[in-house]
UniProtKB/TrEMBL annotation:
InterPro entries: DUF1206. The keyword Hydrolase does not apply. This is DUF1206 domain-containing protein. It holds the Pfam family DUF1206. The keyword Transmembrane applies. The chain crosses the membrane at residues 34-53, 73-94, 115-138, 158-182, 202-232, 252-275. Keywords: Membrane, Transmembrane, Transmembrane helix. Residues 32-99, 115-184, 210-278 form the DUF1206 domain. It comes from the Bacteria.
Length: 280
């Protein structure tokens, strides 16, 4: 065989092996990230349920979830593992932004730009978790952070409009999340062919219930940001904890909060299902 041809075949083989390894690494990062997200939503939902029924002394947000996890046996190890999983999520979203998303039209800007935004978001979340694990903070109150950020943005030129626009965008995102959950759009991204009827039922119950609850929380948080912009009062902006507690202030009382909290628990379980059966 010609030496040049042999060298070309060797390079081709190495390239295929490298792509296969990168694919396996990306898949592992994605599944670890989805599982890590599931842990956070599961803990936040449980903390919110405790609040709904008059118990619990922690905030129902990421900071409260991290504090709860740190009190468990081997809490430090769990926190580092959670942070590593979220780093994997950020890297997976980065690969989607750079090389395209799985599925039809995956290489279009319409699919890659949201992946880039998710990469930035999960990079921030991963940093906060790892900072908390290292004892350098990172688990602060989402309510205080939301008010502080809103106040700083409002001090900028046209800051009031920026806050209002961001809040409106979050409301729209929440509605989209809820509608997609009700339409079961997640099915397009999952390997459902080999699932048993019981597993399919689990995916649909957690996907619809969890996704709808998540969308409601997003929309409510965005509405509070819009209200803060309209009233020009940064303190009216709410983080995750205050947003959840606001459901208990409605005419339905703590039962609405309990339903939303149960939905967040379902979304945590749904994230575990995605980690197992999603196409990545």
């Amino acid at each position: 065989m010609n030496a040049g041809v042999a060298g070309g075949l060797a390079r081709t083989g190495r390239g295929r092996a490298r792509r296969a390894a990168n694919g396996s690494a990306a898949e592992g990062a994605a599944r670890a990230g989805l599982a890590a997200r599931g842990v956070i939503y599961l803990l936040v939902g449980i903390l919110a349920l405790q609040i709904a029924f008059g118990g619990g002394n922690r905030q129902a947000d990421r900071g409260g979830a991290l504090a709860e996890l740190s009190d468990r046996p081997f809490g430090a190890v769990l926190l580092w593992a959670l942070g590593a999983g979220l780093v994997g999520m950020a890297l997976w979203r980065l690969s989607e932004a750079l090389f395209g998303v799985t599925g039809k039209d995956g290489r279009t800007a319409r699919k890659r730009l949201p992946a880039a935004a998710r990469c930035v978001f999960y990079a921030f979340v991963a940093y906060s978790v790892l900072a908390f694990a290292a004892g350098a903070g990172g688990g602060g109150s989402s309510d205080r952070q939301s008010r502080d950020v809103t106040a700083r943005v409002m001090e900028m030129p046209a800051g009031r409009w920026l806050v209002g626009a961001a809040g409106a965008a979050i409301v729209v995102a929440g509605v989209v999340i809820g509608v997609q959950a009700l339409r079961r759009s997640y099915r397009k991204k999952m390997k459902l062919g080999g699932l048993s009827p019981r597993a399919r039922l689990l995916v649909d119950v957690t996907g619809v219930g969890g996704g709808t609850a998540r969308g409601i929380v997003f929309a409510a948080a965005g509405a509070f940001a819009v209200r803060a912009a309209v009233a020009y009062e940064p303190d009216r902006a709410k983080g995750l904890d205050d947003t959840l507690r606001s459901f208990a202030d409605t005419s339905l009382g703590p039962w609405l909060l309990a339903c939303v909290a149960a939905g967040l628990v379902l979304f945590g379980v749904f994230s575990f299902a995605l980690a197992r059966w999603r196409r990545v």
